[in-house]
Predict the structure.
Amino acid sequence: MKHLYIGILAVLMALSACSNSRDGLDLTAYNYNDTKNLVRFVHNAAQKIEKDGLAATEEYKSPKGINKDFNLYVYDMKGINLFHAGTPEVQNKNLRNITDIAGKRVIDLVFEALSNPENPHGWVHYTWWEPGKFYPVPKSSCHFKVRMPDGREVFVGSGINYPLEESEFARIAVDSAVNLITAKGSAALPVIENATSSYNFREVKVFAFRPDGRIVISPILGDSLVSTNLLSCVDEAGTKPFEHALKQFGKQTAVWQIFMAKSRYERQLVKKTLYLRKTMLNDEPLFVGAVTDLPQTP
Amino acid sequence: MPQKYEYTVNEVPPIPHLLVLSFQHVMLMFISIGFPIMLANQMNASIEFTASLITLSMIACGFGSIIQSVGIPYIGSKYLCPNLVGPSYFSLSLSAVWIGGIPLMRGMLILAGLIEMFLAPVIQKLKNIFPTYVVGLVVSMVGVSVIQASVSSFFGLQFKGDAINSLDVVMGMFTLLTMVFCNIWGKGFVRMYCLLIGMLIGWIATALIIPEYRIDSVLLQGKPLFALPRLLSGIWDIKIDMKMVIPFIVIAISSTLKTFGNLIAAQRISVPDQKELDFKPIREGLMADGIATAASGLIGAMAVDTSSSNIGLAGSTKVVSRWLSVGAGGIFIVLAFLPRLAMILSLIPKPVLGAAIIYTGCFMIIAGLQEMFVEQWNIRRTFVIGISLFFGLSTAFLPGLYARAPQFIQSFFTDPLPTATIIAVVLHQVVNLDKLFKGKQKPGIG
């Protein structure tokens, strides 16, 4: 018995002394293993390329690549592909003008993401395809910019097909939109509203409204068919998430507000979240936000 | 065949054994601490709120475990049947919190507890409609009902649709095999503590191999060694919302049936030589469960429920002393006042917990199947059990289908355990109607 007690105590002490720091990356913003695995994969590859240049890409070549889930790619800062594990045919081609199915200029979005301090892992969301397949696939890719030993600057990236919606993605879009409004004022609104911008992807759409609930950028349709006041909108449980969220702004500068929505596939209502930030536009307060999914239990 | 027990249901083990054996049950109960954490996360609640919700829920679990087993007149089954935070109430509790805050969750849980208490004597009246083979089905479905939680934990899955890491699977398998080998080839203490040994070895190995599972000292910062719980709303701040009454009644009925199944399983494991079900402890156990649910609402904790896994653990270790439930309840209450230690235990890696629940679930499923086939089989039973399993298991295989079903069907087809139980009981009567009319034999005896 004594040995068992000592054993239990030793285990608890040993485990308490451990730490979970790993490769210096802060992944606390993410919920899903998928996302964390991708960021680690691209970060490790970027470190290797920074040290050994393009020679380091050898181990990422398909089909022997070190991670079959992710295809690594490397571009220079003009948009010329230097390495693509999944589609080697594009190597040495300039893909700067390539657009996805919705018209998003993907390489330009990568440059924008890499220069955005709100987006530390360079996330870009677009539609792509799987090599050898013929149908569109939603994709989220992360990117790191590095300088190779020969002095050239490149960006290293890879993406997840059918990504799970991280709340961090919505946070990046909304915070970046607030920064744009602060910098450019009303001129920022058409940029944010543009469906091919980084502020709109999949079901996430950045919107804006005044404190009395008047819509400035609609969360649903480009042109509102009927006049909607967001403060009076209710969720499936009959509560008013916008009204509730605005009450919390006295204490906080950003609000995450949970609300209930219907799902065709779930027996009960599912939880979604609304992320809101407050800023000023033309000397009037403006709330900027986006709606996204919350992780569900297995 | 008579079973040899290390400690029988009313036997009190020596104090050191009692403590370690109770702690073994506590380790298994800790899986449910994820629910208050998840509820607080989904509400974006403060750290203080989260800490209080965990503390209060642990107190409610401890209280429920004690009154279920300690032996108060008319209350409690007096079997080894600890409580944990009930997953059945999770989603509705969150809806209640969102609509009316903690006061509404409190009010609705008190109501649910009262419904369970009301159903306790009603269920006793059904004793003639539970033949042995249906009881066997119920016991095996108790094991089946933990499949979802156990397998997703075994694979290290925290959220629906996420990637599974190979190392999680390896560590889950390692832990499971350690427990199995300790049980098969171990003797004395090793066999008695096989779950605890497996969990500790699995925890160490997982922490060594997978850095994410190491205990981060940052998580323990600000967690005092000792802290008193705080009520999350005023003492009389209790609300009822008529819109939520029907959903809570449905869940209360489903939860009562689940507890009914757990108590049958506990009885079968504790007193295997008893030929027929004794409904008195089951009724009193349901009463205790109702009181525990109402009490959890009263103090502002999440709803509690009886734990299938812990009953399976009792079966696997041949230690069925009800005092372990009292001990585990006591330890849970003490841990509620020790946030730092509780935090460490709540960080047990998911694959290790999943392995532990699979290990205990094996005993439930097999005990139920053995009971089902102990009597001579006939074609009527084939249809009763077959059809019940088809529709009972369909709730787990096809949850999306029931999401679009009419409300009446949704209310009864909630979970494999209650669904299979209801269908088996009804079908048993239906396929034996001829016997009833001929007056040869009561269907209940079938």
